[in-house]
Amino acid sequence: MDRQSDIEILDVTDTSTFGLLPPCVDPSFDHRSCDYWEDEVRGSKTARASWWQEGKPAPRPKPRPVSDNPFAPPPRDSDDFNPFVVASDDAAGDDAAGFNPFAPTPEVATTASGMGGPRKLRLLDRGHAVFGSYAKIALLRGEPACYAQFGPLSAYPRAQQVRELYPRLPQSPLPAVITCVATTDHARGLGLGRLLVEAIAHDLADRGFAAIEAYPDLTLDAAEASAASPAFWTACGFVEAAPDERFPVFRRELD
User: Fold this and answer.
1) Residue 141: which region, alpha, beta or left (left: phi > 0; alpha: psi -120 to 50)?
2) Per the count of CB atoms within 10 A, which of 4, 17, 152, 183 is most buried?
3) Torsion sign, CA atoms 238, 137, 34, 118
4) From first to last of its 255 residues, what are the pLDDT tens digits of the chain?
């Protein structure tokens, strides 16, 4: 295989590159709706179709009728008017059970750069203006074959939670982290994961980071684990900085 012509590495920064995220080996999971590392309490890797829908623009507020009393409430449309119930034309989706009328509506949120789009893309984009991209993909002969998610430790509360188990780890400067590396079935054994990690390492070094860490979960099956295996990280030049039978920490110093 001619790597120069067959492989292309892209940063995930917009809806076009987000649309190239490869599928997970286990179809019950999906990179496009995974917030496992971003939410340490309720985060999930489960495939959720609503997450890769385009975000809807915020609706314009309806004008209030002119009144002689500017402090008077708007007129009631019916006797059972409830000011705390938000009317909606949309059917309840897969997140309806957790609806909170006082919380921002997820569909109308925008990214840190002001860009709308799927919820996962907005998560990946939230620190782009300061940090840069949070994900890369590798294309093999034009087809999505490998995906990796990374960024500053502060962007991934679950990674922080794991790291806090090991106070002997260096506390300053804090490392960048790689939270997910996944290769499609047809592209396994070609070294694409290691190639993508190398691209991330060079990128993070250019951004001023002194080290990268990864947190493989040895309690999960290979298809369910997003942070690869100890053998993979060793092959990528990482060393086991905090040995553990369940949640070891692997670390690589950057030049």
Assistant:
1) left
2) 183
3) positive
4) 445 579 999 999 999 999 999 998 888 999 999 999 999 999 999 999 888 766 554 444 455 554 555 555 555 544 454 544 444 433 334 444 444 544 444 443 344 455 578 999 999 998 888 889 999 999 999 999 999 999 999 999 999 999 999 999 999 899 999 999 999 988 988 999 999 999 999 999 999 999 999 999 999 887 777 888 999 999 999 999 999 999 999 999 998
> Could you tell me the CATH superfamily of domain 3-56+94-253?
Gcn5-related N-acetyltransferase (GNAT) (3.40.630.30)
Type of residue numbered 6: D
135-140 and 7-11 as β-strands: parallel, antiparallel, unpaired? antiparallel
Annotate 182-196 with DSSP letters as a single string.
Answer: EE-GGGTTSSHHHHH
Q: What is the pTM of this model?
A: 0.75
Q: Are 110 and 122 in contact (CB under 8 A)?
A: yes
Alpha-carbon distance of 227 to 183, in angstroms, equals: 12
C-alpha 164: how far from its chain's center? Answer: 21
Q: Give the separation between CA 110 and CA 113, rounded to whole angstroms.
A: 8
Query: Do the Cβ atoms of 177 and 151 come closer than 8 Å?
Result: yes
Strands 176-183 and 211-214: parallel
**Cβ neighbours, 10 Å, residue 73:** 10
